[in-house]
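User: I'll paste a sequence; please echo it back and then give the predicted structure.

Assistant: Echoing your sequence first, then the prediction.
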Amino acid sequence: MPMSAIDKEALETWVPRTRVGKMVVEGKITSLREIFDRNLPLLEPEIVDYLLPDLQYERLGIGIVQKVTDAGRRSRFRIVVVVGNGNGFVGVGSGKARQYLEALRKALRNAKLNITPIRRGCGSWECRCGEPHSVPFTVMGKSGSVRVIIKPAPRGTGLVAGDVAKTILRMAGIEDAWTQTFGETRTTLNFAKAVVNALRNTYKFVTPVDWLKA
C-alpha cells in the first residue's frame, strides 16, 4: 500500500540553502512543473515535499548487501522505492545503510531528487477518448541490461506489466498500458530506472497538442 512520502519534521525545520528553494518559500515558484519548465536545478528534497503535499511512496525491493573489510563482513540494507502523486510525477531511488529506517530515508531522498514529470494521453487507435489514462505514444527506456517498451492501451485494459513496472505506472497516474521487457528484469533497480526512463521520454517528442500551446 502506498504511504505518505512527506517528511513533515524535516519540512517544518527546513531552511532553504539554494536559490530555487528560497524562490519556493517566497512564493515565486508555486508548482513543481514550473521548475522543470524553467530548467531549474532540483537539489533539495524539501522542495518536492513543499510543492507536492500528496506525494506517496511504495517500496519496490529490499535486500542485504555485504562488504568484506579487514574487520570482517559488514552488512547493510539496500532499499529501492518509488515516489509519485498519481498525477504526472514519479521518481525512483535507492538507499543503503546499516539501519532499515536510515536506508529508507536515503532512498526517499534519492527518489525525490530524481522525480520527473511525465506526459499522459490516449495514444491508442482503439480508444481515442482523449482522456489522460495511458501514454500518448509508444516509448522505450533503458537502464543497464534492461530495456522496457511501454505502449498505449485502450481504456479498461489495465496495466499489462510486471509487478515493479505496474507499481511505477500506477504511481505516475497511468491506468492502461501494455509493456514489453528485455534483459535481466530481476534486477529491481535497473528495471525500475528503465521504466522511469521510458516515462521521461514521453516529453522527448513534440505532439500536435504542443503546436496549439506554442
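The CA atoms of residues 125 and 154 lie 8 Å apart. The longest strand covers residues 56-69.
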